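Show me any protein, fold above all:
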Amino acid sequence: MLVRLLYASRAVDASPEAIESILAQSREYNPANGITGVLCYGSGIFLQCIEGGRAAVNDLYGHILRDARHRDVTLLHYEEILERRFGGWSMGQVNISKSNHTQLLKYSEGLELDPYALSGKVSLALLEDLAATAAVCGRV
């Protein structure tokens, strides 16, 4: 059974090196465990969607909850799915500062990424929009 999980967290270290470390680790771990998804970051906040088998996704989320690189981890959305929306990415990345800011205004009150102020469905719609407009890199 496939599931989709969407969460937000605050970066303990939002340096480019720290972000790249998280992405590199994801791109190594995820394919071996049947996980795909997208990580969006900006203003020290992560918004991540992970998709895959229920046990694998749940295990990964448990690891993220314990990961010292994240704080204020908040589950935004969890659902059983028929198919993946981000199946082409072992872990795509979106740097929100490099995207079209009108996309953020379409879904939120301001120009900064704040998934804590959005519903899970709205956050997922934002990620889908970013993916559809080719603002995601790291396609596998």
